[in-house]
């Protein structure tokens, strides 16, 4: 339970415009948190100033951090924030609970997910590309299809598609409760014709695909490279190969989570492009090299 000294420190840390924005942004981002670069853009502060503010918030116990590869991910310290709210409402107006009822109801509403998510104003089309369209792009397509909760329609394709989807990719998806019905390897030419869906985002997940001359995408989608190592290239025992796919899935899921946290509809194209490209620098990012899957 928070005491007066801790509460004063917390309020002092929040008593600054940018620090208050940082905490509100991290609360919105959820437990997955945000990378420092993305957070700095979201609250419109420089990297140097962000570091200073995060240090103050961390000392007050309102922000936590963790390392993921080369990135530092920051999250709201929900238990301490909850304690701060409880400190303010402790004893609830000397037993007159009806006075605090509106605040309690508001907190309950914001923290309890609705039974039926509201329909989005617009559904965004997202295309994941790799050379073979059998592993990484398939994983990304399946995960965004479920985790996007109706806000995004996901597709995948390849410049040189394999005859079939890698069985290990399908196994890992099923074991992590992602649907696999309808997943198939296909050419990116399917998405360049006049009757193809208009893409809002195109993400390459292998370095070869990023370096190839892509078809013309109608609608000028936002593009970014989210390259990670090819799990299909790993040789060895079944456990070693499966571990490679699980690792690839984790890296892609982290990127998708960061993408889903973006306020897509409220960002201009330049800012949105910078944000999705920053996501590509998260843990597991590759350097250009020769690969095929």
What report would you give on this structure?
There is one protein chain. The protein has helices at 4-14, 17-29, 36-43, 47-59, 78-89, 97-111, 136-147, 167-175, 207-211, 238-260, 269-279; strands at 34-35, 63-68, 71-76, 124-130, 152-158, 201-204, 222-225. With 293 residues, it is α/β, with parallel strands linked by helices. The protein is built from 11 helices and 7 strands. A 4-stranded parallel β-sheet has the order 5-4-6-7. Strands 1-3-2 form a 3-stranded antiparallel β-sheet. It is elongated, with a radius of gyration of 22 Å.
Number of strands: 7
- Contiguous uncertain segments of 5+ residues: 288-293
Helical residue percent?
A: 40-55%
What class do helices, strands and sheet pairing give?
A: alpha/beta
Q: What strand line-up does the widest sheet have?
A: 5-4-6-7
| Total number of helices | 11
Radius of gyration: 22 Å
How much of the sequence lies in strands comes to: 5-15%
Task: Kindly report the average pLDDT value.
Answer: 83
Summarize the structure.
With 293 residues, the chain is an alpha/beta fold. It contains 11 helices and 7 strands.
